[in-house]
Here is the input.
Amino acid sequence: MQTHDSTAASGEQDPLAIESALLAELGAELVTTSADIDPRYFSAYNEAPGRRPLALVRPRSVGDVSRTLALCARLRQPVVPQGGLTGLARGGVALGGEIVLSMERFAGIESVDAAAATITVRAGTPLQAVQDAAAAAGFTFGVDLGARGSCQIGGTIATNAGGTRAIRYGVMREQVLGLEAVLADGTVLSSMNRMLKNNAGYDLKQLFIGSEGTLGIITRAVLRLRPKLGAPATAMCRVAGYDAVLRLWDRMRAVTDVVSFEAMWPSFYQYVSTHTPGVVAPFAGEDGFAVLIEFATSTPGGDAAQTLEACLADCLEAGLIDDAALATSERQARDMWTLREGLAIDELPHLVNFDVSLPTGELGAFAERCEAALRARWPDIVCVFFGHIGDGNVHIGVSLAELDDALADELDRTVYEVVQEMDGSISAEHGIGVLKRAYLACTRSDAEIALMRLLKAALDPQRILNPGKVL
Here is the structure.
């Protein structure tokens, strides 16, 4: 596994001197000293606590963020920006010698502009709060994730999160009109554009979207809103193989009401349908792919359930699907989504998650090649595939009876070599962080990486922002 390579500028400062300087500049209300930091601030998702930070700063304003970074720049003190800690690449955890800057207190909806269909929010605002505010104003927000209640807007922008609605509205990048970020030296860069069209020079917000806090810390954003969706309709289909999944997707994407199109490979569906307590699976775990489809319409008077039912009837008649179950209650729809979210696989021993993307038409061949490569090395491996499909994103869950750092590295190499051979991406929606840093070249060319390093050197010459992540 990738370890911290001491690329940050600090490491020689006295920790007590750092604490004292932070307290003197920011006060005890904003600063928590190392011994008193709750372990959740240095624990990656689904992992035991890691390295304790030198201090925790929880700003309440943009000015607090600016003062923190200006001080850290003077002290050459590394900083790890932190959102809801729902990412799977350890991008928000300290590796040793940093302070953590958590945005959780700088939260809230600042305004909704109904005429422009925008919402202005603070970085620490949970995604679900943005969704609720959009709904209250008569709109829909275009991104939805399983971690909606805990992930923060700043983090979703910093990782360019995707989620289950990307086929309808695009990923997080497509939702951001304007952005405010604080640079490594404390400079506040405010580009809070509220217009759909603005070609006045470089689009500077794009530097920070997907940069995982390595170029600046996102503090506020102007987000696009969409026409309000009616009640969703959800169904699960059984199809024979991946070619049938593609034919079904080709049929469904012609319907403007489709919001989500999620596929579960046979081994994944068999596992979650038998290991998810309290959930009634619509089909037995026999061979075949399970496909979850959600429709929702913004047309006044439109009936998504009626449209989806008619589509499924046509698909059955055309032989595109073998069986279908249309959810007739919120409970049934929730059960279908619970199966797809796959929380049951978290109980597998030494689970390693992968989040990759390839063109949709190649995902079936990728899964076959990837599983064959893994089983050639570990015949008894548990290997399951599931994902968003319509946007080319597949998740892989891999479990071995025993796992150490050397085996984890070998697992990564095995999967990412297949991704590289097929010209895919090693990260679809969780970023690079620490875990994928050593494999960035599997996805990016030497010229691209050189330009990334040039941008990093220009915006963060002391390398104090999220050191050891991405590059």
User: Anything to note?
Assistant: The CA atoms of residues 6 and 468 lie 7 Å apart.
